[in-house]
TrEMBL record:
Belongs to the aldehyde dehydrogenase family. SUPFAM superfamilies: ALDH-like. It comes from Zobellia uliginosa. InterPro entries: Ald_DH/histidinol_DH, Ald_DH_C, Ald_DH_CS_CYS, Ald_DH_CS_GLU, Ald_DH_N, Aldehyde_DH_dom. Keywords: NAD, Oxidoreductase. This is Aldehyde dehydrogenase (NAD+). The active site is at residue 247. It comes from the Bacteria. Residues 14-468 form the Aldehyde dehydrogenase domain.
Amino acid sequence: MYSSYINGKWTAMGENFETTSPVTNKPFATVIGCDAEDARAAIKAAKTAFPLWSGLSAEERSHYLIKVAEALEEMVEEIEDILIDEVGSWIGKAKFECLTTPKLFRAAADLAKTVKGYELVSPAGKKSMVVKEPMGVVSVITPWNMPLNLSSRTTSSILAVGNTVILKPAELSPLSGGWVLAKAFEKAGVPKGVFNVLLCSKQNVEKVGDVMVTDPSIKAISFTGSTGVGKHIAAKAGGLLKKVSMELGGKDAMIILDDADLDIAVNAAVFASFNHSGQICMGTKRIYVHEKLTTEFTDRFVAKTKKLGYGDVRDLNKPIAPLINETQIRKIDEQVIDAVAKGATVLAGGKRDGMYYLPTILTGVTSNMSTFDEEAFGPLVSIYVFSTIEEAIDQVNASKYGLSGAVITRDTVKGYEVARKIESGMCHVNDGTIYAEALAPFGGVKNSGIGRYGGQASIDSFTTTKWITIADKGIQYPPAFME
């Protein structure tokens, strides 16, 4: 049995709920769920812990974050198994997540030492300073697809700058998205109340989420997930004048220019389209190929895609993972069926095998098809043809999303120019759309989010800016006020 972690203790007061493994399609874990009262208790604990945590030196907070990283490294075998069984991670993806997550905490440990203000030249002769201060208690709500990594990415930097945290992982990934981290924080000896985890069933998610947004003690909200839920949270938080940082959905595009190295293009397209079976927000969903290269690229892309193995997530040679649940399979299948009915052609995949959906490539997709601009959170990608760079950029930018982008070209100067014109929060030349670095600003534009994570961007997102002036001598006010 697994439970929430509040004020340094494992709580066991709510109703049980079960998670289902997409690998076996059978119950995986029994969890003691939390409710709104537990959420309020966690917020109270975090508020109480805030003065102590924010009052520590940067070196002291760094010490604790490094301890968390070390604890995660000690738990790696257990975490890999949980990632595989709970969310259907292919073992290669699970190993990657376990390798990169401790690095996020180590990067945050360094980040804590870089929170700096600056001085201004005051025309009044005062000492004029701008300082960065922690905000207080921050709510963090994370998704199931990269549960450990995404919970850690946000949490580590928020704590580094002196805030305390309430984390609610997705109800589909309570262990890998929250429980694992709580165990690491407990092992690291982080003071009680600094980091709290709420494991919540689907039945209670709205009530718990509402408290995490509306409680007066919550000063900011970090959300990673669907655009629809993000808009709902942002609307509620905006009415309360609370700061939000959100990474939302994507319909990410790759542009393959006429001078592209096709080895790079095909490899990048296969990886970015089908890693974790496309269940990644920055996965490639649209590929725009210059007419000169369309036939050769498509033939090679389809051939390589059809060779991707599946059926055993613990086999490093079978990278295609099961989809998280029946709902996601139906959503992908409905988009494919709709596209085919309206004239699209399936070049690969287009069908399921148990909990797996075969990597699917479509061509002939038009604007009247649901997959044209709806996010496809699965192994589904469409190929489009263009004749001019301007045409490709216009088509890419017509989407309501703008998370990540990619440009493949031998002319890196041209690639940079195209990347600048793509409406996205991130863009990579001669790489796929899936790429992140701990200290780089990560986030999107349009319906893909607001705010950024990573490095200085995290400092800006999760601190307040205060202006302080000091006058060595009294100020000379107008004589009328001095009588």
